[in-house]
Amino acid sequence: MHNKAVNFKEGFMEVILSFFAQVFLVLSLIGFGFQFSQILKIDKSEIAGEKQVLIWALLGFLYITFFVTALNFFLPVPPIFSGTVLTIGLILFFVKFKELEKHFNIKLFKAFLLILVLMNILYLSYGFKAFDTGAYHIQSVKWVSESITPLGLANLMGNLGYTSLSFSGLAVTDFILFITDKPLFILYPALFSLFFACIYVSRKRLAAKSDIFFILSVLPLFMQSRSFGSFAPDNSVLIYTLVTIYLCIVLYEKEHSQASEVSLKSLITLLASFSFTIKLSSAPICLIPIYFLGEIFFKRAKLRKAFLITGCLCILLVIMFFIKSYMLSGYPAYPHPAFAIDKDWTVPRAQAVSEKTYISNYPKHDIRAFDEEYIKSWKWFPRYLLKYSVYDRGLLIFFCLTLFIVFAGFYNSASLKSFLLIFKNKSFIFPFIITSIGILFWLFTAPGPRFAYGNLFGFLMLIVSQLLYVKPDLSFDAGLRNIISKGLAFIAVISLTLALTTVYDNYFSSQKFLKLLLTYYDNLDIQKLQLLFPLFIGFLLIIFIFAAFFCRHLLKLKNIITLKKNNVLRAVFYTTLTCYFLFEIPVIFSPQNIRFNFPEIKLNVLVDGEYPVYFVEYPHLGFNKTIFSTNRRTNLKVEFNNGRYKFIYLPDN
After folding, report:
1. Looking at the domain assignment, is residue 432 inside a domain?
2. Is residue 280 domain-resident?
3. For residue 327, what are the contacts with CB-CB under 8 A and spacing of at least 6?
4. Which of 119, 329, 446, 500 would bridge 334 by S-S if both were Cys, CB 3.0 to 4.6 A apart?
5. Which of 9, 16, 100, 15 shows the shortest CA–CA distance to 57?
6. In 3-state terms, what secondary structure has residue 46?
7. Of 300, 323, 346, which residue sits at a domain end?
8. CA–CA separation, 64 vs 29, rounded Å?
9. What pLDDT does 524 receive?
10. CA–CA separation, 326 and 154 (whole Å)
11. Nearest to residue 58, comparing CAs of 231, 243, 185?
């Protein structure tokens, strides 16, 4: 009991430290972002105050990342340097406070602090959950903090060749982790909280389509909040993609002055280009800056000079991404094996191809990722649908609600032609095409939902926001109300069934049911299944009957005549979040949740021969060994010249 009390006290103090560090960070990012926008002369975008604050924070992180990436080619970025950089940002915030005050008002600041407290309570519950963060994210950030960009680092471990410039920025924003050796993650809880606060403050302004889209952003952000205790690049890509789509809607939904148009296009170009340098899966979003650059330099000659600095900066940002990727692996977009350079540190082509195959096929089937015949046959697809219907239930629910709103919009249209005309405007078509291409790219490369949350949710949110903007009142007659009530009841039954079975699966069966279901799609010989499978089907039916009986009395929709825009948004918001929270309860309160015991997950630095090896212990998963213990380590030649490590792969004789 004494040890638990001590652990709880230490964990509580960690959260307090994180809270103040997050406030410090957000103010610093806003200071940098505001100064950055003034230098580039992109501060005339005519965006509402609180949303402008969020964009400044995102620009601040972009600016820090750009600067640190360039610096790390020649110098390490230790915690003392990182703390100094953030202090400069805080000074800029207070120096520019009079100009910032009309945007960053007391109401927004109070909302941010309150939401940040709630986010840190979630941090107490969720804790350190992302496996990849311990496997290679922290190590990648630590190499930035303690070393000049090494050559051939991917030869030490393949994952270390996955270039993400966000790791450079995280070396500054989350430097406390390297001082305390504790899993204290600062950036994502801070950015998520600021985004939530901006949504809260602007919740009553729904006059424009972009306002509706911005409000709906709360859904994917909340669903992804489970992983904010991490360094996962997916979080950055989600935020930057959603804000980029929002700005595209703002750009085309009304006429703008020339200064405002240049500012908006510059912001979109910067954020989209930065998204690409964070994660390769967001590559299709680069079509936006390519389109803008082509439009301005071939059709809008008057805007060339104003857009020149931003365009050059974006090109330089992408070039730095390719340079760093070449240095880490010998490839410009590792693990894609194209355009390799012939250097002694270049990862062998066979290894790059193997990494690419694994990344592409792992979401389809984690065990049979290298079984090309199986993957090409599409036998993996039923199992894939089942798996991600369980793991990404929030996305599935929002998809169902989107279909419901589309059905309502179609019902209220005089004909199919009049319904399709709803979508005939550039503020919808332009981002719709971009997100559609992004989804297709995702499907044919690596179809893990987390790789494309921004495009998947953005696509659905675009449709919902367009329909609610064009048809704010969705009216139904008595007959249709009966159909709708049954449809909503069915959704409620499915949701409750999933929630109850998930609770049972986590608490009583150690996820045997889920494993059996996934196994079933690998082996269609029902005779080989254990008796547990038919028992589970019976259990599902019993729960379904109970849920149907419960929802029959819960959902009384006889009095609903009109679904107004505000009511629809509330219904979408509360239905999705309630269902999602029900699904998350077993995860939060599961005995497997390590955060309740506040274990000390240490970040250790070992010296193995001539070079440092970083690793994170996983006592809750049984990994009390070096994550980097790979077979290829014994085949490495290590050189150290002028503070830079070079890892050379030595093939077996």
Report:
1. no
2. yes
3. 73, 149, 150, 151
4. 329
5. 100
6. coil
7. 323
8. 8
9. 40
10. 10
11. 243
pLDDT of residue 324: 95
Contact 61, 172 (CB under 8 A): no
What are 1's two structure tokens? Answer: 């009991």
What mean pLDDT do residues 310-319 have? 90
Q: Is residue 107 part of a domain?
A: yes
- How many structural domains are present in the chain? 2
598 located within any domain = no
Count the neighbouring beta carbons within 10 Å of the beta carbon of residue 365.
21
CA 457 – CA 591 distance, rounded (Å): 31
Residue 483 DSSP SS3:
helix
258: nearest Cα among 88, 429, 46, 455? 46
Q: What's the domain range around 640?
A: 612-649
All residues at 6 or more sequence positions from 152 whose CB lies less than 8 Å from its CB, including other chains: 328, 329, 330, 343, 344, 345, 346, 347, 646, 647, 648, 649
Nearest residue to 311 via CA among 299, 303, 322: 303
Q: How buried is residue 317: exposed, middle or buried, by Cβ count under 10 Å (0-12/13-18/19+)? A: buried
DSSP helix/strand/coil, 644: strand
User: DSSP characters for 30-41?
Assistant: HHHHHHHHHHHT
Both tokens of 422, joined, read 């709803």
What are the CA-CA distances from residue 200 to residues 57, 218, 245, 498, 574 (Å)?
17, 9, 19, 30, 14
- The number of angstroms, rounded, from the C-alpha of 298 to the middle of its chain's C-alpha atoms is 35
CA-CA distance, 187 to 173, in Å (whole number)? 6
Sign of the Cα torsion 435, 441, 443, 445 reads negative
Can you tell me the distance from the alpha carbon of 303 to that of 297, in angstroms, rounded to the nearest whole number?
Answer: 8
Among the candidates 279, 304, 323, a domain finishes at 323
Question: Using CA atoms, how far apart are residues 195 and 112, in angstroms rounded to an integer?
Answer: 9
- 200-217 confidence digits (pLDDT tens): 888 877 778 888 899 888
Alpha helices in 362-452 (DSSP H): 372-376, 381-391, 393-411, 416-421, 426-444
Distance CA(563)–CA(432), nearest Å, equals 25
Closest CA to 293 of 282, 285, 284, 304: 304
Distance of alpha carbon 2 from its chain centroid, rounded? 38
Place of tokens 């005309």: 421
Confidence at 652, pLDDT banded by 50, 70, 90: low
